[in-house]
Amino acid sequence: MHRLTTPFVCAFVLIALALVPLTGDKFFIYLGAEIIIFALFALSFNLLLGYGGMLSFGHAAYFAIGAYTCAIFLTTLELPFLVAFLGAVGFSAVGAAIIGYFCVKLTEVYFAMLTLAFGQLVWAIAFKWVGVTGGDTGFIGVAVPEMLKAPATFYYFALIIVTLCVGVIWIIVNSAFGYTLQATRENRNRAEFIGVNVRLVQHVTFVIAGTFAGVAGALFTLFNHSVFVESAWWSASAEVLIMTILGGVGSFFGPLVGAATLIILDRITTEFTVYWPTVLGIILLIVLFFFPEGLMGVFKKKKGGRS
Amino acid sequence: MFDNPMLLFIQFMNGLSLGLNLFIIAAGLTLILGVLGVLNFAHGAFYMIGGYASYTLVNWLSGVPGGFWFAALGAAGLLALGAWGIERLMLRRLYGRDHVYQLLFTFALVLIIGDVVKVVWGSSILSVSFPPGLDGAVNLGIAWYPSYRLLLCAIGVAVAAGLWFFVNRTRAGRLVRAAKQDREMLQALGINVGRIYMLVFVAGSALAGFGGALAAPAIALAPGMDAEIIVECFIIVIIGGLGSLGGAFLGAIMLGLLTAFGISLFPDFEIVMVYLMMVLVLLIRPWGLLGKPQAGG
């Protein structure tokens, strides 16, 4: 996408999204809300993969921590909404800080494996700590504030939060820190030689990505009024990876496009067939072999970008 | 439990037979990971096909003496053939690309194979009967123990010994080890590395199919069994060290024993224990118990 057209496209998309509740159709409002929540989740993931070159296979863990914290604070502890929401964000950040500390010591497949291991540990805790999380049956009946119960109100709330987060992420990747991060991706050794503390940069990125995943998770709790343990299972981490690759890792907005495409395709396909996994598998194969730069890569001019 | 030697022994044997069966599958995964550098998520799906294929083959060969064993070998052969096709047609085109593409490719296979299994064999639970003569128990002095599980132990040990011999004592094994170490150097020496990759992928996948066929009488065949086994195999490979066969052996035994004793000692936290063990190993030795430290890492 050309630099000058980007603001126009953004404004257009934002206006289009803001108009969705005016249709008055619950189906579209729910679909739209799900898309914007997962768009944020995928965008947070791409900070790691696209900008940092770190393949995390346990990103769903922070989404789940945010989701469960929000649910537990609101329902079990009966805390005010603001405390619950900020608490969810804070807990995801702390979780990502602790786990990230160990993970950034490793690279490539080893990094992926360790993030997977920690992600599964989070899942196992959520699965087994039945008294707190509801275990296998899930955390049902979250005490969502009255204000956010109407679909349209929730939709606007989610849209505002996600837009703000996307703005912050945009500022981060275009800051000096963002460029440093991309330098560590391109050449770790060189970055180290010029004095960049690669591990620190990666750790900070890990925390930022985990935090935004936590925001998405908290929003998802408010959206669903429940949390299920599957949200921490590794296939949830695979899903966000697929969204990101589908949209394109090399582009800022790619993950947003990927999330929207995947969710809409899921809805359409499940109308016709129960074999959504096969359809998804075939889509993946097509993307992998024919459009390695994702959907955004198709629109982008060839400029030898990283795939 | 610890005051009852009989129970202790039975749990120990359960852990061992589970671990040795897991080893057969995890060995294939770790070989593929070590040589090709591909984290094969579809390995569990291959195991699942192995189990289901042996179900069908056992039924076909019901009158044939030793039918079960032909079915197990047939399942392994089927997987070898399938893996050959997948490698030749698709996977090889992804070798030069980033890890994430190979990983997603195998994930696409998981999604498709899961549905194929549902279409071919249905969603209900199937079971394979024990091979004739192996449905009883043997007196081991301390306790009676199911003979099929004993045989699983023996086969696991035999496969481990065979793999060890192949990798450490044959020329082909030496080439496999060399391909793990330095692909370019091997290529420069005039060795067809592409063929080694293909053969390792085929052999590793055949092991998954064989393991699935062997496990089939001891478990229930159901869609979703692939997700369980792949997570267990990942844990084994992570604990043992990526690409290390000895590590996979150690990891498989540890996981088998921890599962067997965990279920009776901490029934509520057995799964947490398993993941905790993995994280602990990784914190102390990030490259696994018998793995090699990552260069520059």
TrEMBL record, chain A:
Subcellular location: Cell membrane
Entry's Gene Ontology cellular component terms: plasma membrane
Name of the protein in its database record: Branched-chain amino acid ABC transporter permease
A UniProt-annotated Pfam family: BPD_transp_2
Membrane topology of this protein: Multi-pass membrane protein
MF term (GO), any: branched-chain amino acid transmembrane transporter activity
Residue ranges of the TM segments: 28-49, 56-75, 81-102, 109-130, 154-179, 200-220, 240-265, 272-291
Species the sequence originates in: Hoeflea prorocentri
Automatic annotation (TrEMBL), chain B:
Keyword NAD: no
Topology with respect to the bilayer: Multi-pass membrane protein
Any one Gene Ontology cellular component term annotated for this protein: plasma membrane
UniProt superkingdom: Bacteria
Keyword Coiled coil applies: no
Transmembrane regions listed in the UniProt entry: 20-39, 46-62, 68-91, 103-128, 148-167, 196-222, 234-260, 272-290
Keyword set, alphabetical order: Amino-acid transport, Cell membrane, Membrane, Transmembrane, Transmembrane helix, Transport
Family of this protein: Belongs to the binding-protein-dependent transport system permease family. LivHM subfamily.
PANTHER family: ABC TRANSPORTER ATP-BINDING PROTEIN, BRANCHED-CHAIN AMINO ACID TRANSPORT SYSTEM PERMEASE PROTEIN LIVH
Name of the protein described by the UniProt record: Branched-chain amino acid ABC transporter permease
